[in-house]
Specification:
heterodimer, A: alpha+beta, 4-stranded mixed β-sheet, globular, B: 183 residues, mainly alpha
């Protein structure tokens, strides 16, 4: 048995890792995560939000191991087709059972290796077309630099990559049912341990209670079940006893998104950072060359921000000043259900009209729509042995709103003028702008 | 196709699926959209992979969520053994009105898919969708395709997979006869 080490953690108390996992932890790509903030510039409004991807990745590994042990426990495998599919300790497939447990924990440990500085803040617009942090994660896992580790511990890096980035991001790869479920344990929209860890951890560091829920109960009640709707396809679900914990997870996500992740000040700082980086980076984009990616951290960007903010000769001076001196653009208009009924693109219409009057450089638009289905529909194993949809079993889940925000921001210097102008013209803008039914 | 224009086509598909007897859960909409785009070439621009219940688009899943957020559709829980249905919400009629030309442009394709798949359950849609997915990607005999399907989806037996492949071939013939396939 590999030697176990323990790392203290504020969320899980102890995170235990063996000698193999320690090799990955000591690698250059993993150590880099010590310098990537989990929540970008959120610490400018919630000062406690200074935690990094490093400890989050360790937490995800810890939880992935716990979930694996629960869902492969022979007592929890109630469905015949699932029993055939899942490697088990109590059969002659000890090797397969152990291999997939190791792969799952490694994948959990590695799932964020490709994150850019300040995590998601600048990802969408500052990478070449077709790239995202998951693709960078894939490249790092398969890189020459990591190959020696995988060879030594006899793990196929492609198995790690598949589970780490999931079928959504590993284009052109077919997933077996087992691989799809194991990947769901890490990145799944209902019970992915990535989400479980970040909600608990972000909540802890920020100092808000919204993200907390009974994850011990939830994990103990997870089961691999046929997805239902007359299909035998297996997926991750819960025992009925864990349904309330599952509801609490979904609500935690909803509140954290509305109160923290989509907070308008956080969103405008992301925009200012993106504006700065597009001027500061060579060709306005991050490099996807791994040797360049691995030395690009929040520390590097922070030094550049300070330098540019204090010297007009440096690129991105105005944008850096907005961040460093906390003179961010202010909220002028946000999504409003009454306006939405009149015009599905009310916020876009306001943005265009305000830009025309006050100049595009003084106005910014931001839109967020929740991705994923929200993890609302999953199989629930009832106390009488029947499997039913969570949305039928839980009225709470059926009514959780979708997180959707649209914002128009205005330069702080002209905020009052813009506000007065918009008050006079808002109704006209919203009702007179129509979407066009052009040729498709 | 622009986002709201695409949403209007999805609303039209949803409406037609209901009219043809479907209880239209998210899986129904996923598989019907797959046939609309992959078989009948309606340019919706979704990226499908083999995942939940066969061909599955994460983009479409996100779009369905966004449509819920924009009050175009909503969930309606169903009694056991059915999963939740998707039904039109308060903003649907207005959007369909704005994009009536686009809806008319693809009405034959939408009607064909709704007529062909509207009365099918999830497991049948899973088999048919998976069969079309393999027919589109692998040039091989049906027997060989059936064993490939079984390998990736062990809960679909090779015999059932072969039946689904033949059913899809029949649907393709019907679409061709209705002049809905690209020549």
């Amino acid at each position: 048995m590999s030697h176990q080490q323990e790392i203290r953690d504020p969320i899980h108390n102890f995170i235990r890792l063996n000698a193999e996992e320690r090799k990955v932890l000591d690698s250059v790509p993993f150590q880099r995560l010590r310098h990537i903030h989990q929540l970008a510039l959120t610490y400018l409004l919630y000062p406690g939000a200074t935690h990094k991807r490093f400890e989050h990745s360790l937490g995800v590994m810890e939880l992935a191991g716990r979930v694996y042990d629960v869902v492969t426990d022979p007592d929890n495998l109630i469905d015949t087709s699932v029993r055939k599919l899942v490697p088990r300790k109590d059969r002659n497939d000890d090797l397969e059972y152990g291999y997939w447990r190791r792969v799952l924990r490694m994948a959990a440990l590695c799932h964020d290796l490709g994150h850019l500085p300040f995590s998601h803040a600048a990802e969408k617009d500052l990478l070449p077309d077709g790239w995202n942090h998951e693709l960078l994660t894939l490249e790092i896992i398969r890189s020459e630099g990591m190959r020696d580790i995988w060879d030594e511990i006899k793990i196929n890096p492609d198995d790690v990559a598949k589970l780490a980035i999931g079928p959504e991001n590993y284009k052109g790869k077919e997933y077996s049912d087992l691989e799809a479920i194991l990947s769901e344990i890490i990145v799944g929209e209902a019970f992915g341990v990535d989400r479980i860890d970040y909600l608990l951890r972000d909540s802890h560091h920020i100092g808000v209670a919204y993200g907390r829920f009974d994850h011990y109960r939830l994990i103990d009640s997870l089961r691999i079940l046929p997805r239902g709707n007359d299909s035998q396809e297996p997926g991750l679900g819960v025992d009925e006893g864990g349904l309330h914990s599952a509801e609490a997870l979904v609500l935690a996500r909803y509140f954290m998104f509305t109160q923290v992740y989509c907070h308008h000040v956080r969103r405008i700082y992301d925009i200012h950072l993106k504006d700065f980086l597009s001027k500061w980076l060579p060709n306005g984009q991050f490099s996807t060359e791994l040797d360049e990616h691995l030395v690009m951290t929040d520390d590097v960007i922070n030094v550049a921000l300070l330098r540019s903010a204090n010297d007009a000769e440096f690129p991105g001076h105005d944008e850096a000043k907005r961040i460093v001196r906390r003179n961010h653009f202010r909220l002028l208009y946000q999504r409003n259900p009454t306006d939405l009924v009149k015009n599905q693109d009310a916020c876009g219409a306001v943005y265009e009209a305000v830009s025309e009057i006050f100049g595009g450089d003084n106005v910014r638009f931001d839109s967020y729509r929740q991705t994923g289905g929200g993890g609302l529909d999953f199989p629930v194993l009832g106390r009488d042995g029947r499997i039913e949809s969570s949305l039928y079993m839980s009225r709470t889940l059926a009514t959780v709103p979708v997180v959707a925000e649209d914002y128009v921001f205005i330069s702080s210097e002209i905020k009052e003028d813009a506000k007065r102008w918009l008050e006079k013209n808002r109704e006209r803008i919203i009702t007179s702008t129509r979407e066009e039914d052009g040729e498709s | 196709m622009k986002r709201l224009q695409r949403d209007a086509v999805l609303l039209s598909l949803l409406e037609n699926m209901w009219a043809h007897g479907s209880w239209c859960g998210e899986t129904h909409l996923q598989k019907a959209t797959y046939f609309l785009q992959e078989l009948l070439s309606v340019p919706l621009g979704f990226d499908f992979i083999l995942y939940k219940h066969g061909p599955f688009s994460f983009d479409l899943r996100d779009e369905i969520t966004a449509m819920r957020g924009d009050f175009l559709i909503k969930y309606q829980p169903q009694r056991y053994p059915y999963g939740p249905s998707l039904v039109e919400d308060v903003g649907a009629d207005r959007l369909k009105g704005i994009f009536s030309r686009t809806i008319h442009q693809y009405s034959n394709e939408v009607n064909f898919v709704a007529d062909t798949l509207g009365n099918k359950g999830v497991s049948e849609l899973e088999r048919l969708g998976t069969a079309l997915y393999f027919i589109r990607r692998q040039h091989a005999e049906y027997e060989q395709l059936a064993s490939l399907i079984h390998k990736l989806k062990p809960h679909i037996s090779p015999e059932v997979a072969q039946g689904a492949l033949q059913d899809v071939a029949e649907i393709m013939k019907m679409a061709n006869k209705a002049k809905l396939l690209d020549q």
